[in-house]
User: Fold these one by one.
Assistant:
Number 1:
Amino acid sequence: MEITGAEASEQIYLSYRPLMFSLAYRMLGSVMDAEDVVQEAFLYANETNLNHVHNPKAYLCKIVTNRCIDSLRSASKKREVYVGPWLPEPLITTSANADNQILPDLAYTHKESLSTAYLLLLQQLSWVERAVFLLREVLQYEYDEIAEIVGKSSTNCRQIFRRAKNAISLPPERASETKQTTAIVEQFVHALVSGNIAQLLTIVKSDAILYSDGGGKVNAATNPILGVERIAKFLSGILAKLPEDYRFTFTTVNGQLGIVAYVNNQPNNVMTFQLEEGQIKAFYIVVNPDKLKHIEPWHMEA
């Protein structure tokens, strides 16, 4: 059976959609914006007769990169007046929503580069540095390919990558810590719910920090909370005010174990963690409702 032009375009889109989303999400830190960029990139590429493009993957990545940079430029002023800490939109990667959301293919997941801590470090880079760094470090592109995508020389891309890599310093994730994550997070929840402060102090580092992103839309801490005692007091205060229909579930958030909480069966907040030496080093809580719109309501089977 002969494959039509439309069918060929659809096959190209399905083949490269996970890659495009993976790049766009890391660039933007937004699930919904990344989905929009991917869709727009494909529509634009299809209008230019994608079937006759010599290297569709590089071509699509170039479109996605440029559209991400345009999006970041237009959002820069909003970021400057953002109320409180800014955190990326949580990316929920569970089988329950795999049919309803563009998810990165396992080949592009690289869990450590999806973590909230990693995405925040990427924010320190310029837009071009971020693109070069992601294409090289995460997606394993050659410098000649990167040069074609970002419109710079291969030598320049090497320099940009080296500068970006030096600017980012995140301790490598230890396999032992990865295996301990589930147990530590569950211990933390149990200690918090039961009011066992003594146990909490053994799970959370004394100099831990908590970031709460409400974006000025809902009540949230407008400044980071420092120290395990202050964090415990802050979280205990929230716990005491929870409504009766509050419920939560453990799930994979940004490639790591996280917690999605619901009120009235609607997503209320998402909490992720950064571990260091077997203890929780940082808490990231997204309560901004605009950043939770893509998360599905509570299901009994969740």
Note: The radius of gyration is 21 Å.
Number 2:
Amino acid sequence: MTAYLPTIKQLQYLVALRQHGHFGKAADACFVTQSTLSAGLRELETLLGVTLVERTRRVVRFTPLGQKVTDKAIRVIRETEELADIARIEGQPLHGELRMGVIPTIAPFLLPAMLPRLRSQWPKLKLYLREETSQAACDALHRGHLDCVLLAMPFGCGEVDKAMLFDDQLYVAYPRGEAPVGASVRADAIDEERMLLLEDGHCLKDHVLAACNRPELRAEATMMGTSLHTLVQMVDNGLGVTFLPAMAIDAGILEGTDVDTRALQSAHGFRRIALVWRRSSPREEEFQLLAEALRLIAASIAPRLASIDGPAPMEPIILRVAD
């Protein structure tokens, strides 16, 4: 057996430096002084007998071997945290810290109602939230920075397990007086020259284009918006039409506007909201409990959301572009 092995603390220093690219910022993230972090990394390099990081006054550059060692360190730290989780959650579901990622087209519409109810149901749960695009959230999940992610499917998130929560119907939003007669509108009846979409990086944009069966419209949208609230204001000012999920409408995104909506008539005119977690996580039972709670909360606050009983598979093709 090797007499001397890297410590978890040394590996944490290495991962923090990779993440922040700066000794001072990495030290702050680890709650140590810069000299302590630097000394820990030098000890690690001495122990391994290799150079992991090239140090200059302006640039921190990892060597090729340093990149490989850091990739492995990320996995080791993640598995160490999971080892601690096994002991911590025994007999105490949803107790202690839980780091959840939520995408921007869900967070502002579901979280305000979700958080108070979760605190009431599990008062000892410390839920830390991180709003990120789908790809960034999935990357953080696999790096061990998040425990689970509230995600809109379909989306390729790697080796994960998931609990499907509910279907979120898509609606077309029109300026007052422009909406067609009837409760719904066919995708081919929408004027693509007036479409307002979210900018690249939001998976809702890709769900909309897939539902319309018009992927070529990605580059033809009249205007790109940074958020659903921005798009609603553009529609309200007569600049075009956009697409909104039911949860946003039920959360009041149209209050104070003259925007009208019609359900999108399409075989895949919805997105499926799911809770996803790493396939290796020992906290699956906790996540299933959390998923059931989220289903009940959603049913009580958003009547347009269609409940799902169990992890039914999605039919649409998995999208592998950034959220």
Note: The CA atoms of residues 126 and 142 lie 21 Å apart.
Number 3:
Amino acid sequence: MNLNIIKKDLSQSHIYRILVRKKICLLLFLALLLILNFLLDLALGPANYDLWDIAKALIMPNTVPVQLRVVLWDIRMPMALMALLVGAALSVSGAQMQTILNNPLASPFTLGIAAAASFGAALGLVFGLRLFPILTEYMISINAFIMALFSACMIYLLSLRRGGRAETLVLLGIAMVFTFNSLLALVQYFSHEQAVAAVVFWTMGSLMKATWPKVAVVFSIFILTLPLLIKRVWALTTLRLGDEKAQSLGINVKNIRLEILLLVSLLASIPISFVGAIGFVGLVGPHIARMLIGEDQRFFMPASLLTGALLLSISSVVSKLLIPGIVVAIGVVTSLIGIPFFVTLILHSRRNTW
């Protein structure tokens, strides 16, 4: 009897090791795809270069023409890196929002963060209003960040009155979406044509204004928030079992839900403030990761990071290829990619519980 139990345990341990190896291989494969697409993103543009020339310019920059070095390091590298960082940040944010809210449609957009950022940017673009009196060269980004964080804090404070429950957070997020979209429409109504065009372009999302200082800021926020999320992988994995099960295992569901909400709101609002409202990455990236890896946060979180970065990097490449000589707003490309997946998800969720 004991021998059979031991054999069964050994068999289950062997299967578990195989599954872990499979997940690690999938993560390495995603990382390889990301590196290749990153190089392709650097090679494409108004002046196309061979991948060999790009690799040479990265490894031995002094051996390539000055023009290539300037184009690569001063223009394309910040944009390509920003695509990776923003995609990763939005996807990780969406993944954890879906986890804490137990809602497959949760993302920085559905909780009103993007809508609030758009309203903040519009105040600067239309009226020249500064919500923070210094750093005028970053007025639009600072306005967008302040309003996005304000939206998240409002959701947090109001949800405390109802115990921080998941359904309360979702409903408050929807209320924020409608509120800030209405305020944005009101701002556009009273603005002139050029200002409206500027607001519309910002809400489409673009990597064109990416610079090294902006990349450094997004990277810093990512490095600060990611370890705090990693520390909570076990609690986040347990949340997928349901609130009652998580509480029975010693998890303070209310506290962890509100803590993660603030962390991912910060992680999402900074990138959005720099590149504009890029949609569907925070929704689609986590679902692709979930289908490949599963719910174990030890693998799901890095998979979400990689799929989001890969999705936005691919979108950056597609934005350069759609119309020769013109870089299409990347938010348009991500929406075109994300909408079919979004519709499929809605139809699928009608047949299955998430």
Note: The chain has one domain: 64-351.
